[in-house]
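[Help] Beginner question about ligand-bound structures

Sorry if this is basic. My supervisor gave me a protein sequence and a SMILES string for pyridoxal-5'-phosphate and asked me to "get the holo structure". I don't really know what that means in practice or what format the answer should be in. Inputs are pasted below exactly as I got them.
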Amino acid sequence: MIKENLEKIRESIGKVSQKVNRSINDITLIAVSKTYPVSDIEQAIALGCRDFGENRVQELIDKIDKVDTPVNWHLIGNLQTNKVKYLIGKTKLIHSVDSIKLVQEIQKQSIKKGILTDVLLEVNVGRETSKHGILIEETMEYVKQISGLSHVRMKGLMTVAPYVENPEENRQIFRQLYDLSVDIQKQKLNNISTGVLSMGMSNDYEIAIEEGATMIRVGTNIFGDRNYTYSK
Ligand SMILES: *Cc1c(COP(=O)(O)O)cnc(C)c1O
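Answer (accepted):
No worries, everyone starts somewhere. Holo just means with the ligand present. The predicted complex, written as structure tokens, is below.
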């Protein structure tokens, strides 16, 4: 099943990127493996996946221990400040930075380990009260704060779009995140790049690619329905 699913998604990524004149090499498919067993991750690795997204620190660390092949791990879910110390040094990218306290803790733990940690700012473009992320109008303030840090490097922006029946409805959301990244880039701040746009999930990744996504986060369409319990 995973094999057929991946073939379908790769084909559609190819089609959509061609349609909007983008190279498929500029789009990273993150297989969102939260709640799925390690055996599913290993299957996906055998089929060429090298980027995996998880949204809980504990589950992520457990899976990192169990998966032998070196792959890129992405933390895409909300990160609590007290969990940062377990995570630092283990991720390719933390997608969910949405508070100054959090970014300061990432800086502190990265200094301790002597490493540079790459992050994205999570923006709540749709202004949903149920969602994490900062608001568009707050973004520049955060970017300036991160710019001054020695061990945290901003690589771009992330958003979780609203759940909609028709993915077209999220086009405006993705476009706003893209526009915001252009505005940030114009500031030419130290330590700040906007090359990464993490947006689009199973339901709407094609629209996200059309609007400039460089990372799409796809779970259900690869691994099937989630049952929301991961047991070690
Ligand atoms: C679960 C999750 C996804 C993947 O969602 P699907 O609809 O299963 O593709 C993407 N991004 C985040 C932040 C998630 O928590």
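A couple of things worth pointing out: The pocket of pyridoxal-5'-phosphate is lined by residues 32, 34, 55, 76-77, 160, 201-203, 217-221 (CB under 6 Å). The longest strand covers residues 152-158. Feel free to follow up in the thread.
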